[in-house]
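hi! just following up on the protien thing from before. the input was this:
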Amino acid sequence: MTAPAHTDRALSFSSAAAQYAANRPSYPPALLEAIEAMAAHPLAGARVADIGAGTGIATALLHARGADVVAVEPGDGMAEQFRRALPEVPVVRGDGNRLPLATASVDFLTYAQSWHWTDPARSVPEAVRVLRPGGALVLWWNAAALDVPWIDAQTDRVQRHFGLERTAGRNGDGTHAVLAGPTDPLDFARGQVRWSRRVPLDTHLANIGSHSIFLVHGPESTAAFLEEERRHLLTVFPDGMVEETYDVAFLVALRP
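and the predicted 3d structure came back as:
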């Protein structure tokens, strides 16, 4: 298969916004607790901008924790779904490479599953510009726990289906791209939280199908994989309930 462009993958989610909202996993309370501890600042009462907010999965958690949140989202479909889910939270159009936010205006700048779609040469200076002194840039990703045998086997099947090379020791959490890119003048601390959810097989398969690699290759390729994957998973979960295990990798940097 021909590898799709990075931009095409980044914008692919709008076509599946409802599917994304209904089936993607959220994040555990322990993640927000760890972020507050590393930032040495509570989210309650803080001014927070959630960038690449998508359908609002992370934004909803930040809002519920008492933060004063504004969301930034580039995709039409995702922004529309966001407004349905969180009508009380403002969402503005834009992305991390050119933030539609005032200088020194926020205490937290958060990227849930979205920093890897930015160009760090542009998004790091923008983060520094928008954060108040002492404010925190926080990046996180739900990554499949590859030490769980069935998850490791499924990852291999996905890679083979799309003809992708699997890199040893990398589970797609996105932190490798941050740590390898330009981050001056930010110094990132790193953490990880493991959690799980138990969902119906249909939810699990719809979650997989909402990932960009499937969306850009079209419904026929996705349907073929998911039909075969259903058969594989029923041998592991004969009751049709799938135990998904995630490692949420997160990075926190304080603006000087």
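Residues 6-145+170-198+245-254 form a domain with the Rossmann fold fold (CATH 3.40.50.150).
The beta strands are 47-51, 68-73, 91-93, 106-112, 131-144, 188-200, 241-254.
cheers
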